[in-house]
Specification:
464 residues, two-stranded antiparallel sheet, 69% helix, 2% strand, globular
């Protein structure tokens, strides 16, 4: 039965990647409207449950790691179609290696160094496979962005996704009586981070004076939806991130000048925020009352495990995606003892059979240090810094264009998300990862436009 199920999965995957993807490419050739609809659809589809656009081979459902098999993401097939359409059109702006993608591949290469010494090398190959295929999304989105209208098409798709998400969250909170609602996400924290990551560039578009009134309504509704989603997630860190990001984007907009739209949206947003916080005050007060001291915060003990793993294997780590094996009995007794001593100090009785599937560290950076060592950690930071650099340069270059505030919002969102990664590892999860890569591709294309305009400036030409 398992062989038959695997065979059917392989057929479906082959049909999607080798059939639908290329067919989409031939269909989209020379069709601007269809290409923009496809870009918007990609963005919207990411709000759906992961099972709607992923399929796993060699699935290990009970494993408590950040990869549980060799994952195929159907958004990648759409990206293949977008890239093929650009190739068929013989576009001069098509690149097999867009700006910044080289650093992504360096990070994957650094992660692969951990494979030979991993407790289970197969587990270590799973994230390498998953992240390497994200290059399809990067290249496809980069190829499909021909001008600012395509950028806006992506953000419209994300805007609709946010509105759909808040409807779902409200239903789960006030009709089904949920406490920490998570919508169609695996957990409320990735939902909250995903929401503010796309809300901040959407806010930039909403307050841009060049944005049409119709889009202003859509984008502001989406931004308000994101704020409410973050509140309903009851994530304190995400609420702080959303608030700081909103203030920074609004202050940035006032650098361009005061307008009726910006002042009115600021006032409406502030009043709406106060109203929402009043509605959710009881829930947040309950969360604020939780003890997050090292003695009672599980994350502290898990980070201690990570530090011990990195100290033991600083050059390769204990193996990509192997943290769940290395910190649990029976293979990881040495590191499980750290967690067990922490539990003992809290007055708990220790039963070894209860430590055979310990949780992962919540910190993205401690996870990288533990699993891939210092090289993997450094290469990840390099890629993150490059995306921020692209955002800063593109923001400056296009500050007075319709994309200026959107690029600024995107750069702010990345900076906050990377800082937030100290306590959340959600950039490893499929929805957040795919969204992140799409946004990285947008910044990469803006950087490419900047470089081309610099080259053509002496000729008095513009590429867009």
């Amino acid at each position: 039965m398992d062989i038959l199920k695997t065979f059917i999965k392989v057929l479906v995957i082959a049909f999607v990647y080798l059939g639908i993807g290329p067919m989409l490419g031939f269909y989209l050739k020379g069709k601007d409207t269809a290409r923009r609809i496809t870009l918007g659809f990609m963005a919207w589809w990411l709000v759906r449950p992961p099972s709607d656009f992923t399929l796993m081979l060699y699935s290990i459902e009970k494993y408590r790691g950040h990869c549980r098999g060799f994952e195929f993401n159907y958004v990648e097939a759409i990206a293949i179609g977008l890239a093929l359409a650009a190739l068929l059109e013989k576009r001069k702006d098509f690149r097999y290696l867009p700006p910044g993608l080289w650093a992504w591949f360096l990070w994957i290469a650094a992660g692969l160094l951990s494979v030979p010494g991993a407790l289970d090398p197969i587990y270590a190959l799973m994230p390498a496979f998953k992240y390497a295929k994200m290059a399809f999304v990067f290249i496809g989105v980069f190829a499909a962005l021909h001008d600012e209208r395509d950028m806006k098409a992506v953000m419209r798709g994300f805007a609709v996704a946010l509105i759909v998400q808040i409807i779902l969250c409200l239903w789960k909170r006030y009709v089904q009586g949920g406490f920490r609602v998570m919508g169609w996400f695996e957990h409320q924290n990735p939902m909250a981070m995903w929401s503010y990551m796309i809300a901040l560039p959407i806010l930039g578009l909403a307050i841009s004076k060049q944005t049409s009134k119709r889009d202003v309504i859509l984008f502001f509704l989406a931004f308000a939806s994101a704020g409410l989603v973050v509140v309903l997630s009851v994530s304190r860190a995400s609420l702080a991130a959303f608030g700081v990001g909103t203030v920074l984007v609004m202050l940035g907009s006032f650098v361009q000048g005061f307008t009726v739209r910006r002042v009115s949206l600021t006032v409406v947003g502030a009043l709406g925020g106060l109203f929402v916080m009043a509605m959710a005050a009881d829930t947040f007060m309950e969360r604020m009352g939780e003890d997050s001291s090292p003695k009672n915060d599980l994350r502290f003990a898990l980070n201690q495990q990570s530090a011990a793993m990195c100290a033991d294997k600083p050059l390769t780590g204990i193996g990509w995606n192997n943290f769940g094996l290395a910190n649990s009995r029976p293979q990881g007794t040495r590191y499980s003892n750290i967690l067990e001593r922490w539990e003992q100090n809290r007055g708990r009785n220790i039963y070894p059979e209860q430590y055979q599937a310990n949780p992962l560290t919540e910190s993205l950076y401690w996870l990288l240090l533990a699993e891939t060592g210092v090289p993997g950690f450094v290469m990840f930071l390099l890629f993150a810094l490059i995306t921020l650099w692209h955002g800063i340069r593109a923001t400056v270059a296009f500050w007075k264009t319709p994309l200026g505030l959107m690029l600024f919002g995107l750069t702010v969102a990345f900076g906050i998300s990377y800082f937030h990664g100290q306590v959340e590892r959600v950039l490893t999860q499929t929805k957040n990862l795919t969204t992140w890569i799409m946004l990285c591709a947008m910044l990469s294309k803006a950087e490419w436009w900047r470089r081309q305009e610099k080259k053509l400036k002496s000729q008095g030409q513009r590429i867009r």
